[in-house]
Write a structure and sequence with these properties.
The longest helix has 19 residues. The chain is 37% helix and 13% strand. The strands form 2 sheets. Strands 7-6-5-8-9 form a 5-stranded parallel sheet, with helices on one face. The chain has a 4-stranded parallel sheet with strand order 2-1-3-4, with helices on both faces. The chain is of the alpha/beta class. It contains 13 helices and 9 strands.
Protein backbone atom coordinates (compact mmCIF):
# COMPACT_ATOMS: atom_id res chain seq x y z
CA UNK A 1 0.00 0.00 0.00
CA UNK A 2 1.29 3.47 -0.93
CA UNK A 3 1.12 6.11 1.78
CA UNK A 4 1.32 9.90 1.57
CA UNK A 5 3.89 10.08 4.37
CA UNK A 6 6.23 7.93 2.30
CA UNK A 7 6.44 10.29 -0.67
CA UNK A 8 7.88 13.79 -0.97
CA UNK A 9 5.40 16.53 -1.85
CA UNK A 10 7.17 17.44 -5.08
CA UNK A 11 7.09 13.80 -6.15
CA UNK A 12 3.41 13.39 -5.29
CA UNK A 13 2.50 16.69 -6.95
CA UNK A 14 4.15 15.57 -10.19
CA UNK A 15 2.08 12.39 -10.43
CA UNK A 16 -0.92 12.10 -12.74
CA UNK A 17 -4.34 11.97 -11.09
CA UNK A 18 -4.51 8.22 -11.73
CA UNK A 19 -1.09 7.75 -10.12
CA UNK A 20 -2.16 9.73 -7.05
CA UNK A 21 -5.21 7.56 -6.42
CA UNK A 22 -3.45 4.64 -4.63
CA UNK A 23 -2.14 7.03 -1.99
CA UNK A 24 -5.64 8.13 -0.99
CA UNK A 25 -7.27 4.82 0.01
CA UNK A 26 -6.40 1.56 1.63
CA UNK A 27 -8.03 -1.73 0.68
CA UNK A 28 -10.98 -1.18 3.01
CA UNK A 29 -11.80 2.53 2.94
CA UNK A 30 -10.77 5.94 1.62
CA UNK A 31 -8.22 7.84 3.70
CA UNK A 32 -9.18 11.15 2.10
CA UNK A 33 -11.67 12.14 -0.61
CA UNK A 34 -9.73 14.45 -2.92
CA UNK A 35 -10.08 13.51 -6.58
CA UNK A 36 -12.62 11.66 -8.70
CA UNK A 37 -9.90 9.36 -10.04
CA UNK A 38 -9.49 7.66 -6.66
CA UNK A 39 -12.91 5.97 -6.93
CA UNK A 40 -13.28 2.83 -9.03
CA UNK A 41 -16.49 1.04 -10.05
CA UNK A 42 -16.53 -1.21 -7.01
CA UNK A 43 -16.12 1.73 -4.65
CA UNK A 44 -18.86 3.66 -6.45
CA UNK A 45 -21.26 0.73 -6.18
CA UNK A 46 -20.50 0.32 -2.47
CA UNK A 47 -20.97 4.03 -1.82
CA UNK A 48 -24.30 3.99 -3.66
CA UNK A 49 -25.46 1.01 -1.59
CA UNK A 50 -24.45 2.71 1.63
CA UNK A 51 -26.18 5.92 0.60
CA UNK A 52 -29.45 4.07 0.06
CA UNK A 53 -29.03 2.26 3.37
CA UNK A 54 -28.58 5.54 5.26
CA UNK A 55 -31.65 6.99 3.53
CA UNK A 56 -33.67 3.97 4.60
CA UNK A 57 -32.49 4.19 8.21
CA UNK A 58 -33.23 7.91 8.36
CA UNK A 59 -36.92 7.32 7.62
CA UNK A 60 -37.64 6.35 11.22
CA UNK A 61 -36.83 7.86 14.61
CA UNK A 62 -35.09 4.67 15.68
CA UNK A 63 -32.95 4.72 12.57
CA UNK A 64 -32.19 8.42 12.98
CA UNK A 65 -31.17 7.92 16.59
CA UNK A 66 -28.87 5.08 15.56
CA UNK A 67 -27.27 7.17 12.79
CA UNK A 68 -26.70 10.11 15.12
CA UNK A 69 -24.99 7.88 17.67
CA UNK A 70 -22.34 6.69 15.24
CA UNK A 71 -20.02 9.70 15.23
CA UNK A 72 -21.32 11.83 18.08
CA UNK A 73 -17.78 11.77 19.50
CA UNK A 74 -16.33 13.39 16.35
CA UNK A 75 -15.99 17.00 15.21
CA UNK A 76 -15.68 18.37 11.66
CA UNK A 77 -14.28 21.69 10.42
CA UNK A 78 -15.95 23.17 7.34
CA UNK A 79 -13.21 25.36 5.88
CA UNK A 80 -15.02 27.09 3.01
CA UNK A 81 -13.00 30.06 1.75
CA UNK A 82 -14.83 30.06 -1.60
CA UNK A 83 -18.51 31.13 -1.62
CA UNK A 84 -20.96 28.25 -1.34
CA UNK A 85 -24.55 27.65 -0.32
CA UNK A 86 -25.61 24.15 -1.39
CA UNK A 87 -22.33 22.33 -0.83
CA UNK A 88 -21.82 23.96 2.57
CA UNK A 89 -25.34 23.20 3.80
CA UNK A 90 -25.22 19.72 2.29
CA UNK A 91 -22.10 18.89 4.29
CA UNK A 92 -23.59 20.46 7.42
CA UNK A 93 -26.63 18.22 7.04
CA UNK A 94 -24.50 15.16 6.28
CA UNK A 95 -22.50 15.70 9.47
CA UNK A 96 -25.66 16.21 11.51
CA UNK A 97 -27.16 12.96 10.18
CA UNK A 98 -24.18 11.12 11.69
CA UNK A 99 -24.15 13.13 14.93
CA UNK A 100 -20.94 15.04 14.10
CA UNK A 101 -20.51 18.47 15.66
CA UNK A 102 -19.22 21.13 13.29
CA UNK A 103 -17.14 24.29 13.27
CA UNK A 104 -16.74 26.61 10.33
CA UNK A 105 -14.53 29.22 8.72
CA UNK A 106 -16.14 30.84 5.67
CA UNK A 107 -14.25 34.10 5.47
CA UNK A 108 -10.49 34.40 5.92
CA UNK A 109 -11.05 38.00 7.07
CA UNK A 110 -12.31 36.53 10.35
CA UNK A 111 -9.43 34.08 10.75
CA UNK A 112 -5.72 34.40 11.46
CA UNK A 113 -5.06 34.28 7.71
CA UNK A 114 -6.08 37.94 7.80
CA UNK A 115 -3.00 38.48 9.99
CA UNK A 116 -0.78 36.68 7.51
CA UNK A 117 -1.04 33.09 8.72
CA UNK A 118 -0.47 30.56 5.95
CA UNK A 119 -3.26 28.20 4.90
CA UNK A 120 -0.96 25.34 5.84
CA UNK A 121 -0.71 26.60 9.42
CA UNK A 122 -4.46 27.23 9.52
CA UNK A 123 -5.27 23.67 8.50
CA UNK A 124 -2.74 22.21 10.93
CA UNK A 125 -4.43 24.26 13.65
CA UNK A 126 -7.85 22.86 12.65
CA UNK A 127 -6.46 19.32 12.84
CA UNK A 128 -5.66 19.92 16.52
CA UNK A 129 -9.33 20.53 17.30
CA UNK A 130 -11.26 18.51 14.70
CA UNK A 131 -11.38 14.94 13.44
CA UNK A 132 -12.32 15.77 9.83
CA UNK A 133 -11.60 18.77 7.60
CA UNK A 134 -13.92 19.57 4.69
CA UNK A 135 -12.35 22.14 2.37
CA UNK A 136 -13.60 24.36 -0.44
CA UNK A 137 -11.10 26.68 -2.05
CA UNK A 138 -10.58 28.72 -5.16
CA UNK A 139 -7.03 27.42 -5.19
CA UNK A 140 -6.60 24.26 -7.24
CA UNK A 141 -4.73 21.43 -5.53
CA UNK A 142 -4.95 22.92 -2.02
CA UNK A 143 -6.84 19.95 -0.56
CA UNK A 144 -4.19 17.58 -1.91
CA UNK A 145 -1.43 19.68 -0.41
CA UNK A 146 -3.15 19.78 2.99
CA UNK A 147 -3.77 16.04 2.96
CA UNK A 148 -0.06 15.49 2.35
CA UNK A 149 0.89 17.97 5.09
CA UNK A 150 -1.39 16.35 7.68
CA UNK A 151 -0.22 12.87 6.72
CA UNK A 152 3.22 13.96 7.84
CA UNK A 153 2.09 15.14 11.27
CA UNK A 154 1.16 13.34 14.47
CA UNK A 155 -2.56 13.93 13.79
CA UNK A 156 -3.32 12.92 10.18
CA UNK A 157 -7.07 13.62 10.05
CA UNK A 158 -8.97 12.93 6.80
CA UNK A 159 -9.69 15.72 4.33
CA UNK A 160 -12.63 15.99 1.94
CA UNK A 161 -12.27 18.18 -1.12
CA UNK A 162 -15.53 20.15 -1.41
CA UNK A 163 -14.37 22.00 -4.53
CA UNK A 164 -10.86 22.83 -5.64
CA UNK A 165 -10.22 25.63 -8.12
CA UNK A 166 -11.32 24.79 -11.66
CA UNK A 167 -9.97 21.26 -11.29
CA UNK A 168 -12.07 18.98 -9.11
CA UNK A 169 -15.37 18.66 -7.28
CA UNK A 170 -15.37 14.95 -6.42
CA UNK A 171 -18.31 14.87 -4.01
CA UNK A 172 -20.54 16.60 -6.56
CA UNK A 173 -19.56 13.89 -9.04
CA UNK A 174 -20.36 11.19 -6.46
CA UNK A 175 -23.86 12.56 -5.91
CA UNK A 176 -24.29 12.89 -9.68
CA UNK A 177 -23.41 9.22 -10.10
CA UNK A 178 -25.90 8.29 -7.40
CA UNK A 179 -28.60 10.38 -9.10
CA UNK A 180 -27.89 8.72 -12.45
CA UNK A 181 -27.91 5.25 -10.90
CA UNK A 182 -31.22 5.86 -9.11
CA UNK A 183 -32.77 7.40 -12.21
CA UNK A 184 -31.78 4.44 -14.39
CA UNK A 185 -32.19 1.62 -11.86
CA UNK A 186 -35.08 0.18 -13.89
CA UNK A 187 -33.19 0.67 -17.15
CA UNK A 188 -30.04 -1.32 -16.43
CA UNK A 189 -28.21 1.37 -14.51
CA UNK A 190 -25.69 3.80 -15.97
CA UNK A 191 -24.08 1.32 -18.39
CA UNK A 192 -24.70 1.99 -22.10
CA UNK A 193 -26.24 5.42 -21.55
CA UNK A 194 -25.53 8.64 -23.43
CA UNK A 195 -24.65 11.65 -21.29
CA UNK A 196 -24.78 15.10 -22.88
CA UNK A 197 -22.88 17.89 -21.09
CA UNK A 198 -23.85 21.46 -21.98
CA UNK A 199 -22.44 24.84 -20.99
CA UNK A 200 -19.10 25.97 -19.60
CA UNK A 201 -17.22 22.71 -19.88
CA UNK A 202 -13.70 24.11 -19.95
CA UNK A 203 -13.96 25.64 -16.48
CA UNK A 204 -16.73 23.52 -14.95
CA UNK A 205 -15.11 21.33 -12.30
CA UNK A 206 -18.32 19.33 -11.81
CA UNK A 207 -18.17 18.18 -15.43
CA UNK A 208 -14.49 17.30 -15.17
CA UNK A 209 -15.05 15.11 -12.13
CA UNK A 210 -18.22 13.41 -13.38
CA UNK A 211 -16.70 12.71 -16.79
CA UNK A 212 -13.87 10.86 -15.04
CA UNK A 213 -16.23 8.73 -12.92
CA UNK A 214 -18.33 7.78 -15.95
CA UNK A 215 -15.30 6.05 -17.49
CA UNK A 216 -15.91 3.19 -15.03
CA UNK A 217 -19.25 2.33 -16.65
CA UNK A 218 -19.57 0.10 -19.72
CA UNK A 219 -20.61 1.59 -23.04
CA UNK A 220 -21.28 5.13 -21.79
CA UNK A 221 -20.92 7.75 -24.51
CA UNK A 222 -20.16 11.33 -23.54
CA UNK A 223 -21.14 14.36 -25.62
CA UNK A 224 -19.78 17.86 -24.94
CA UNK A 225 -21.86 20.76 -26.24
CA UNK A 226 -20.44 24.26 -25.88
CA UNK A 227 -19.18 27.26 -27.80
CA UNK A 228 -15.50 26.90 -28.72
CA UNK A 229 -14.34 29.22 -25.93
CA UNK A 230 -16.04 27.02 -23.31
CA UNK A 231 -15.52 23.58 -24.84
CA UNK A 232 -14.04 20.69 -22.86
CA UNK A 233 -10.24 20.75 -22.69
CA UNK A 234 -7.81 18.19 -24.05
CA UNK A 235 -6.74 16.89 -20.64
CA UNK A 236 -10.22 15.43 -20.23
CA UNK A 237 -10.51 14.05 -23.75
CA UNK A 238 -7.05 12.51 -23.41
CA UNK A 239 -8.23 10.73 -20.27
CA UNK A 240 -11.34 9.52 -22.11
CA UNK A 241 -9.24 8.23 -25.01
CA UNK A 242 -6.98 6.36 -22.58
CA UNK A 243 -10.05 4.71 -21.04
CA UNK A 244 -11.46 3.76 -24.45
CA UNK A 245 -14.54 5.96 -23.99
CA UNK A 246 -16.59 7.19 -26.93
CA UNK A 247 -17.02 10.97 -26.97
CA UNK A 248 -17.96 13.81 -29.30
CA UNK A 249 -17.97 17.58 -29.22
CA UNK A 250 -20.72 19.67 -30.75
CA UNK A 251 -22.13 23.19 -31.01
CA UNK A 252 -25.75 22.07 -31.19
CA UNK A 253 -27.69 21.06 -28.10
CA UNK A 254 -30.93 20.60 -30.06
CA UNK A 255 -29.37 18.06 -32.42
CA UNK A 256 -28.11 15.90 -29.57
CA UNK A 257 -31.13 16.05 -27.27
CA UNK A 258 -32.80 13.00 -28.90
CA UNK A 259 -29.65 11.01 -28.07
CA UNK A 260 -29.50 12.04 -24.42
CA UNK A 261 -30.37 9.67 -21.62
CA UNK A 262 -29.15 12.41 -19.31
CA UNK A 263 -28.64 16.09 -20.08
CA UNK A 264 -26.18 17.77 -17.70
CA UNK A 265 -26.43 21.56 -17.95
CA UNK A 266 -23.99 24.00 -16.35
CA UNK A 267 -23.80 27.78 -15.98
CA UNK A 268 -21.06 30.03 -17.30
CA UNK A 269 -18.24 30.05 -14.73
CA UNK A 270 -17.44 33.74 -15.05
CA UNK A 271 -15.76 33.84 -11.64
CA UNK A 272 -12.75 32.41 -13.49
CA UNK A 273 -12.62 35.18 -16.11
CA UNK A 274 -9.09 36.40 -16.74
CA UNK A 275 -10.53 39.85 -17.45
CA UNK A 276 -13.74 41.26 -16.01
CA UNK A 277 -16.66 40.79 -18.41
CA UNK A 278 -14.79 38.30 -20.59
CA UNK A 279 -17.56 35.68 -20.46
CA UNK A 280 -20.26 38.19 -21.34
CA UNK A 281 -18.78 38.39 -24.84
CA UNK A 282 -19.70 34.73 -25.48
CA UNK A 283 -23.12 34.02 -26.96
CA UNK A 284 -24.70 31.22 -24.90
CA UNK A 285 -28.28 31.64 -26.09
CA UNK A 286 -28.14 28.35 -28.04
CA UNK A 287 -27.09 26.47 -24.91
CA UNK A 288 -30.05 27.33 -22.67
CA UNK A 289 -32.69 24.64 -22.11
CA UNK A 290 -36.28 25.85 -22.31
CA UNK A 291 -39.70 24.25 -22.20
CA UNK A 292 -39.63 24.12 -26.01
CA UNK A 293 -36.76 21.62 -25.81
CA UNK A 294 -38.70 19.10 -23.73
CA UNK A 295 -40.30 17.50 -26.79
CA UNK A 296 -36.83 16.66 -28.12
CA UNK A 297 -35.80 14.78 -24.97
CA UNK A 298 -36.54 11.08 -24.51
CA UNK A 299 -39.65 10.33 -22.42
CA UNK A 300 -37.39 8.61 -19.87
CA UNK A 301 -34.45 10.99 -20.21
CA UNK A 302 -33.42 13.17 -17.29
CA UNK A 303 -32.19 16.74 -16.86
CA UNK A 304 -29.45 17.52 -14.32
CA UNK A 305 -27.73 20.69 -13.11
CA UNK A 306 -25.17 21.10 -10.29
CA UNK A 307 -26.52 24.58 -9.36
CA UNK A 308 -26.44 27.51 -8.89
CA UNK A 309 -28.63 28.22 -11.89
CA UNK A 310 -28.98 31.38 -13.94
CA UNK A 311 -30.80 31.28 -17.28
CA UNK A 312 -29.40 28.03 -18.70
CA UNK A 313 -32.53 26.09 -17.63
CA UNK A 314 -35.76 28.05 -17.61
CA UNK A 315 -37.91 27.78 -14.48
CA UNK A 316 -40.93 26.48 -16.40
CA UNK A 317 -38.99 23.24 -16.94
CA UNK A 318 -38.96 22.53 -13.18
CA UNK A 319 -42.39 20.90 -13.15
CA UNK A 320 -41.46 18.29 -15.76
CA UNK A 321 -40.87 14.86 -14.12
CA UNK A 322 -37.62 14.52 -16.05
CA UNK A 323 -36.16 17.55 -14.25
CA UNK A 324 -33.96 15.78 -11.72
CA UNK A 325 -31.87 18.65 -10.39
CA UNK A 326 -33.79 19.25 -7.15
CA UNK A 327 -33.61 15.55 -6.31
CA UNK A 328 -29.97 15.61 -7.39
CA UNK A 329 -29.26 18.37 -4.87
CA UNK A 330 -30.99 16.51 -2.03
CA UNK A 331 -29.04 13.36 -2.92
CA UNK A 332 -25.88 15.26 -2.05
CA UNK A 333 -26.72 15.24 1.65
CA UNK A 334 -27.12 11.45 1.66
CA UNK A 335 -24.08 10.69 -0.50
CA UNK A 336 -21.86 12.93 1.60
CA UNK A 337 -23.07 11.28 4.80
CA UNK A 338 -22.20 7.89 3.27
CA UNK A 339 -18.76 9.16 2.26
CA UNK A 340 -18.06 10.48 5.75
CA UNK A 341 -19.21 7.19 7.29
CA UNK A 342 -16.86 5.36 4.91
CA UNK A 343 -13.92 7.59 5.87
CA UNK A 344 -14.47 6.58 9.50
CA UNK A 345 -14.71 2.88 8.61
CA UNK A 346 -18.41 2.45 9.37
CA UNK A 347 -19.62 0.94 6.10
CA UNK A 348 -19.88 -2.68 7.25
CA UNK A 349 -21.47 -1.73 10.56
CA UNK A 350 -24.13 0.28 8.76
CA UNK A 351 -24.79 -2.27 6.05
CA UNK A 352 -25.22 -5.00 8.67
CA UNK A 353 -27.65 -2.99 10.77
CA UNK A 354 -31.15 -4.40 10.20
CA UNK A 355 -33.29 -1.80 8.46
CA UNK A 356 -36.44 -3.38 9.88
CA UNK A 357 -35.16 -2.57 13.39
CA UNK A 358 -35.43 1.07 12.46
Amino acid sequence: MKRLEQVAWQEFQALSLEEKAPYLSDKNKPLHALIAQQFDRGQLDKLNELTTKIRQLAKSKTGNDYLQSLLSHKRAMLYFTQPSTRTFLSFCSACEILGIRIGEVRNTATSSEFKGESQEDSVRTFSSYFDLIIMRSQMGGLAERMAWVLSNTTRPVPIINAGSGKDQHPTQALLDIYTLQRSFENRGGIDHKSIVFVGDLRRGRTVRSLSALLTHYTGVKQYFVAPDALQISTDITTELDAAGVQWETSHSMSELLPEADALYVTRVQDEWDAEQGESSQIDISEYCFTRDHLDLLKPDGIIMHPFPRRTEISHDVDSDPRAMYWRQMRNGMWVRSALIASLFGLREQLMNYPTESA
